[in-house]
Amino acid sequence: MKADMMNPKAISLEDKKLRPVVENLHDLLANYHIYYQNLRGCHWNIKGPHFFTLHAKFEELYTAAITTIDELAERILTLGKDPESRFTVFAQQAEIAEIETIGMKDTDMVKAIIGNLSILIAQERDLLTLTSEADDEGSNDMINAFMQFNEKQNWMLRSFVNKI
Fold it and tell me: What are the tens digits of pLDDT across the range 96-131?
């Protein structure tokens, strides 16, 4: 008997338990897209005495974010669902708001990204509970790694702002 390639049972998970996981993965995907674009805007529009430090940091963060976006979409596919790909949907669904980076002070950019990271971390914590309840260790491990990275970046950026 041939396995159904779009069926979560193919990886020994229950569809009913996965519904909230997939819904929240879609929410996280939407937020990562807005976060990514906010980072691009910060990277492009940074000016001031911290240009070299922050230009490189924003690039590091948006490079990590685009990898995370791809991993989230592929995980949704692994769970047998189709990931959303329309930016209009992401903008409506995301809790993170777009920021206007043109003319924005460098430290205000950092504070905005700290706020974005705080939202991502909160969503990732909520997802860890859902993935545990669904016995979805694959998603749990992935989300835990994203959260640990974001917690560290949040701390580093808070330390940067506090030293200025």
Answer: 999 999 999 999 999 999 999 999 999 999 999 999
What are the chain's domains?
15-163 (1.20.1260.10)
- Give residue 81's pLDDT: 93
Best CA proximity match to 144, nearest among 121, 118, 115:
121
Neighbours of 120 (CB within 10 A): 25
Alpha-carbon gap, residue 57 to 35, rounded angstroms: 14
pTM of the model: 0.91
- Amino acid 35: pLDDT: 98
Q: In sequence order, what are the residues at sequence separation of 6 or more whose Cβ sits closer than 8 angstroms to the Cβ of residue 110?
A: 54, 157, 160, 161
CA distance linking residue 50 with residue 53, whole number of Å = 5
Q: Are 85 and 28 in contact (CB under 8 A)?
A: no
